[in-house]
Amino acid sequence: MLLPTIFLNVLSQETKNVKVAWAVVFRSNPIVLNESTYLLGHGSAIVFKTLKFYISNIQLMQNGVTVFVEPSSFHLVDVSDTTTQIIYLRPISSIGFDRIQFSLGVDSTTSVSGAMSGDLDPTKGMYWAWQSGYINFKMEGICATCSAPNNEIEYHLGGYQDPFNALQVIELATTDNSSIEIDLDLNELFNRVDMTQQQHIMSPCANAVALSKQIARSFSIR
Amino acid sequence: MNRFAIVLLCLLLCAFVVSESLFTVPLHFPKPVYDLSKNVLTQEKILLGRILFYEPALSKSNTISCESCHSPFSAFTHVDHKLSHGIHDSIGSRNSPALMNLAWQKSFMWDGAINNLDMQALAPISHPAEMGSSINAAIERLNAMAKYRKLYYDAYGDSTATGERTLKAISQFLVTLVSANAKYDKVMRGEVVFTEKEARGYYLFIRKCASCHAEPLFTTGNIENNGLRGDLELKDIGRMKVTSNPNDSLKFKVPSLRNVEYSYPYMHDGRFEKLSEVLNHYSSGIQQSKTLAVELQSGIELTANEKVDIISFLLTLSDKEFVFNPNFRPPK
User: If you count residue pairs, one on A and one on B, with CB atoms under 8 Å apart, how many are there?
Assistant: First the structure.
């Protein structure tokens, strides 16, 4: 009769989902695709058309110890689809934590493991056709003041092999144990990166890694 | 033996025959590289993949299927075509490779740009000079075709085509393309013997060629510079295009030599039409460069007679059963 007792104990413990909400903002205002024009610090203006990225391997930590690892943790966050911007973590019991860790991108093991379903399905537009690998972060837009052909800027950032492994691990401190709101602030990003220097990155390379690092630094808890 | 035992034996035998007909690792082959546990073969999925392989709806113009450049009768390459052809008579930049023993292949494409068999089909589907489409457009078309509803349902218990299902079904068919029944294989299994000339060629091959074209797959799968004269027109830098690393300049994947009789022309750009031209290249045509394969730094010494012997051995790698296997052709 031991097993059912344990089972009941587990059930009777309070379980609570942890809500994680992602937003891509510009000075704390959510980005509106295709309509709003955003003025960048150094005088250029930009209209964003596509903004999507992979968040993976989400973990919660308490005093430096991992207390929860989300199983099959791959999420494609897409600014054009609000349903992708909220994730519920489902720990088996209530836990306390003071940090959240996640990766921006898809890890190398998954990148070499063949066709995947769900958010990792290659029909999601986040897989390179001509060279294997996921696009970790995709940002496309029109920058009227940029010299690019048709004023189009395109950043398809990815790469899973050294020396151009673009995956970024991000850790943020949090005080709320039921809801975590995470912002990616593009204003902050463009204050650090002069995008007029390189308006297209479309393959794994040193610049893709460098820009991925700057994006990783632009995540914060709201 | 009682009736029960006989029935049991029959059942076991049937199970064995069925599983064997889907995929067997030939006795003298290593363990496959492709992880079959992540894509367990079934008759229904192989059939779906086989039909997809011959499906022109995967191309933008509805005219080009995988078979267009990978014909079963030439060990799944495009015989007599130096460079691959695609939609609207466009011409690609590389020779389409023969397809066989893909379950043992570490990387795909001449420059190894593709890391898993599942992902290979994405490249030709979206290449503007090949099928000129995209995986999304292709899937949308398949979902609009009534015949695929049943095929996907039978394979996956759900009638919707997805990227994953489609790519994995194609992999299933490709994995079944095993060539291991050439005269060479029969010699290795002790069923027949080489002629004197073939045997001489075999021993020469082992000494002079097998460090890159290693038995039993007849390739190491490595990516090397084999000393070809630079192509001024295509200016193909090979592997360096993928890695941006100058140490990878002019490196291309070592191809398997199985069925080499059927898969001409040779090299990544199809520059050689005859095996004798290939051997002449190795004996007297090697171009020195920083990235040249170590094995080729002083060329391969071969007399005219030795070349003839090696070619007669290479012809023992022709697998007629593979080339004419009705299971590899479009289902009737």
Answer: 68
User: What's the predicted TM-score (pTM) here?
Assistant: 0.89
The answer to which of A46-60, B3-17, B59-73 has the lowest mean pLDDT is B3-17
**B162 contact A CB<8A:** yes
Interface of A with B in 97-116 (CB under 8 A): 111-116
Based on the fold, state whether residues B80 and B218 are members of the same structural domain.
Answer: no
Residues B226, B302, single domain; the answer is: yes
Instruction: Give the count of domains, chain B.
Output: 2
The answer for residues whose C-beta is within 8 angstroms of residue B233's C-beta and 6 or more apart is none
The residue out of B178, B205, B229 marking a domain boundary is B178
Q: Which of B134, B139, B164 sits opposite A116 (nearest CB)?
A: B164
User: Looking only at Cα atoms, what is the longest distance across chain B?
Assistant: 75
State whether residue A83 sits within 8 Å of chain B by CB: no
Q: Of A155, A218, A187, which Cα lies nearest the Cα of A29?
A: A187
State the complex-level ipTM. Answer: 0.85
DSSP string covering B158-194: S----HHHHHHHHHHHHHT-----SHHHHHHTTSS--
Contact B39 A122 (CB under 8 A): no
User: What 8-state DSSP symbol labels residue A117?
Assistant: -
Rounded mean pLDDT, B60-88: 87
The alpha carbons of chain A give a radius of gyration, in whole angstroms, of 19
Hey, are the CB atoms on A122 and B135 less than 8 Å from each other?
Answer: yes
